[in-house]
Amino acid sequence: MRYRSIIGGKERFRLTGFPGSLLALSVLCAALLAGCVTTEEATKIQGSMTSLQGDFYQFRQDTEARLSKIEKEQENLSKQVVNMYSSVDSRDEKIRTIMGKLDELDYQIKTYWAETKGMAAAKRTPEQLPLISTKDPKAPEKAPKTDARYEEAYKEAFESFQRGQYENAVTKFTAFTETYSGTPLASNAFYWIGECYMNLKNYDKAILYFQEVIDKHPKSEKAPRALLSQAEAFRLTNDKKSSTTLLKRVIELYPKSEEAVIAERKLRNP
Known about the structure:
This protein is mainly α. The protein has 10 helices and no strands. The chain folds into 2 domains: 77 residues; 120 residues, Serine Threonine Protein Phosphatase 5, Tetratricopeptide repeat (Alpha Horseshoe), CATH 1.25.40.10.
C-alpha cells in the first residue's frame, strides 16, 4: 500500500508540476527513518524517482524545442511581412520610373513635331510665302525671344532623375523652376521634384511640390498625376482620410483621365 501511495504521488507530480526528485527523495527519507521499507522497496522507489526525473527532463526539452520552433516561425513571418512591403515600394518606384520615361517620350514627340513644322515652313516656295506690304513699314516689332536653353536644362535634370540621382535632380529641377518659370515645362519640373522626394521617402516635401502643380498649373497635363501622387504620399504618411479625399477629387476633376481609372482602382482596393 505504501508503494502504491508513493506511485500515486508520482502521478500527482505530472499534473501539478512539483519537482519529482524532491518529492520522491522526501518520501524515501521518511520511509527509511520510519524503518518500514525494505531494501527491495527502496530500490523500487529509487527507480521510480529516476524515471520521474527522466520524464521531467524530457518534458523540458520538448517545451524548449516547441518554443524554438515558434520563434523561428515568428521570425519567418516577420521577414515575409518586410518583403511584402519592400515589394510594394519597389513596384511603386518602378511605376514612377515608367511614368518618367513616358513623360520623356511625350516630350521628344512634341519636340519632333515642332521641329518638323519648322522645317516645313523653311522649305516653302516663294509663292507660298505671305505677301509683304509695299507700304513704308514702321519700326519693326521685335518678336519675343524664347531661351532655347530651357529644353536642354530640363532634359539634363530629367536624366538625373532617370539615373536615380534624386537629390541632384531636385537641385537641377529647382534651378529650372527659378530660371524658366514661364516656360511650358515649368509644371513638369515641379511635378518631378515631387516624385524625387517620393523616392527619397520625404513625403511631406513631395506633397508640397505636388500642390505647386495643382495650384499654379491646374490645366497642365501633370495636374491629375500630381493629385494622384499626392494621394499616395498621404497614404504613406498613414493619413488615409486625406488620401481617400484626393482620390475622389481626381475622379471628380478629371473623370476621363487615366489617373481617374487608377484612382477608382485604389478606392476599390485600399
